[in-house]
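Re: fe (ii) ion structure - here you go.
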Amino acid sequence: MNSRQFARDLVRHSHEWAQQYVVQEYGRIRASLRSEGLIEWCRSFMWREYMVGVHVTAKTLALLPDADQDLKLMLTTQIVEEWKHSQIFAERARALGGDGDLKHYAPTPGDWELYHWTYRWTHPVELATALQCTGEVMITTMFRLLVDPRRVLLDGETAEAIRSQILRDDDQALQSLVDPETARSLREEVIPDEGQHIRFGRLILERHATTDALQQMALRVQQEKMAALRTSHGQLVDRVLSLEG
Ligand SMILES: [Fe+2]
Ligand SMILES: [Fe+2]
């Protein structure tokens, strides 16, 4: 398949999967997070934006050939933005009364699971598939759900099932699942960047996933990454819900 079509299909598959997965996993959060659970969620993202966002992007940048200066420049932008996201989540953790110092954060097994299955790859096609084209598609859908559950729950193919399953007798599920300032940060300072990052990953695949072997490799990585996302976010939601009490 030509690489342009391949890249578009792969990202579209991530979107379809993310829509279904995020609703199922994060739909377990039925009321706005307001205490320890929200702080822990912010602290985990302080770490993930740095360890996964910055480190994996830097690895990809270093592995791309000299001819790809345009892609390297895009990835440099992404590194700066991922560091900004890490600081935004640190600031939210502090404002909510938690510890926003990255050096104090003890990563959970779920955090490491996510890092490992994103960073371990050695080809730019694998790294871009794992990070931008799969992981960032999922977290963008998830951020949108936290900011405005209605928007995610009420569009898409699963809307009817969700309406009866989650929204029945549950007015709170219709409101933002995070506090107004966290919602504003996500909406204005994080989500728009993530849309660009998904595009950067797609451009890497368009240029480099040019053979059948490389495309098969990317599809395998996508499956591995989805499995890691399930484990990691399953544990994170469990932890958040247990801390909210
Ligand atoms: Fe990010
Ligand atoms: Fe990103």
